[in-house]
Amino acid sequence: MKLVGYYRVPPVRGIFFSPAQEERLLLLGCEEVFSDRCLASGVVRPGLARAVEALGDGGALAVPSFHALGGDMAGLVDAVLKLKARGLHLVVQQPQVDTRTDPGFFETCEMLMGFSRERPMVRAAETALIAKGGKAGGMKGLRAASPIETEVETEDATEDED
User: Fold this and answer.
1) HEC string for 7-24
2) Alpha-carbon torsion angle 59, 62, 68, 70, nearest 10
3) SS3 32
4) Which secondary-structure segment (H or E) carries 144?
């Protein structure tokens, strides 16, 4: 199984590669290591594309951390699921993840992507419910009574019994 490394270099003037990250990936057993430089203008990752192309079926992409694959949760999960779709594995050094021995990480990413897709629909339904309830007074039953209101109601009920 071929192991290929990939890392991203922060957008610091004059720095185009990271010997420390590259060395860590080589010590992990990577046959080749590719990199990209983060750009303020957008996400362009020709190094990641070359790293994935260098892998054969069942190969594994090694990265120092999740930051190499995505700048946010959606980007990370998308990149991970693209690896899975191509039949590739993922090895992350920190935190330690290795889908060659524990493929459960892919399942977790699939669940997170499902949540991400469903969230806008749920949010729209919640917004519609609140808007409808707010105008029609239908939200009173959904609002929890404050402890003070509950105490006052209890005292009133006790006085009525006397």
Assistant:
1) EEECCCCCCCCCHHHHHH
2) 40
3) strand
4) none
Please state whether the predicted TM-score (pTM) of the whole model is above 0.90.
Answer: no
Tell me what pLDDT residue 157 has. 55
C-alpha gyration radius of the chain: 26
Amino acid at 35: S
Per-chain mean pLDDT for the chain:
78
Distance CA 90, CA 68 (A): 12
The encoded tokens of residue 57 equal: 């079926």
Residue 41 pLDDT > 50: yes
Q: 27 pLDDT exceeds 90?
A: yes
Cβ neighbours of residue 16 closer than 8 Å, sequence gap 6 or more? 9, 37
Please answer whether residues 56 and 2 qualify as being in contact, where contact means their C-beta atoms are separated by less than 8 angstroms. yes
